[in-house]
Amino acid sequence: MTENDLIAARVIARERVACDVISLRLVSDAPDFALPAFDAGAHIDLHLRDGLTRKYSLCNDPFERGVYEIAIKREPASRGGSAHVHDAIRVGDVLRIGAPLNYFPLAPDDSPAVLLAAGIGVTPLLAMAHSLLRAGRPLAFHYFVRSADAAAYGATLASQLASVATVHTGLTPDATGGAIAAIVGAMDPRAHLYFCGPAPFMAAVDAIARPELGDARLHHEHFSAPAAGTAAGEDGGFEIELARSRRTLRVPPEQSITDVLYDHGIEVATSCEAGVCGACRTTVLDGTPDHRDAFLSAADKARNDCMMPCVSRCRGERLVLDL
């Protein structure tokens, strides 16, 4: 994304919505330009100082045109993103954002929905809940938090979403797993499950729900990739053959496939560059990928016919990609 693609958005409201979470409401800074419409599950890129970019889910009702609301949790190990937003951004500031992207959409049918969130993972599911209620689709919304003051948008859940929302506070990991199993076990056979939260929560939901529901009824979004067993750069390089452009490139240990592609003027759609969003999904024609993303399902990875080149690598010496 270039500077010319960015949107100038002005902060019109800032509010503390949990003990460590603030919300920002944004509108276009240009009087003759409205912020683009978005669907539930979408996120935007927020471009901060020194080239820092962070992704935040849009959590307001998509029916509310021309306004984006994002929520930012202050992370203890912040590398400058959440800390800068909490400490420096105020009402009236003009921020640079990307247009909405959605890799976590609702199923386009009228199926019932079960929403499971933990921590700051509640944000995309809030927009989903608003959309589902407006469409008259059946839903149940379960939110797991460590304490009441850590529940982001607790007031919204207790008012606008009170008829569908249940907040589970202070459960142990075992109790959380038991609650998730009970929720999954009681689901309508047509219902789809949408979940988002910290990596341990995501792993627990996936382990419980996937055997029961399969891939087609399971939808998730990771805010960060689970730790990989081997980090990029700890193993050897490999070659990638680009079938359409008839080029062969070397990927050294210290670079990702997308880095090498960029260096050689080959454009690939990217967004998160952390293996969680799916934007860079690329077809593999030959070779075996070393999957290190958190986007593809287990079945996708077993087929080895696609990969996320922003983080994944090669299990052998060569990959042939449809590029």
UniProtKB/TrEMBL annotation:
Q: What single Pfam family name could you report for this chain, choosing any that match?
A: FAD_binding_6
CDD domains in the cross-refs: fer2 (cd00207), PDR_like (cd06185)
A GO MF annotation of the entry reads: oxidoreductase activity
Keywords recorded for this protein, A-Z? 2Fe-2S, Flavoprotein, Iron, Iron-sulfur, Metal-binding, Oxidoreductase
Entry-linked InterPro entries: 2Fe-2S_ferredoxin-like_sf (IPR036010), 2Fe-2S_ferredoxin-type (IPR001041), 2Fe2S_fd_BS (IPR006058), Beta-grasp_dom_sf (IPR012675), Cbr1-like_FAD-bd_dom (IPR008333), FAD-bd_FR_type (IPR017927), FNR_nucleotide-bd (IPR039261), MRET (IPR050415)
State whether keyword Iron-sulfur applies.
yes
Q: Which domain of life is it from?
A: Bacteria
**Keyword presence, Metal-binding:** yes
Q: Which residues form the FAD-binding FR-type domain?
A: 4-107
Q: What is this protein called?
A: Ferredoxin
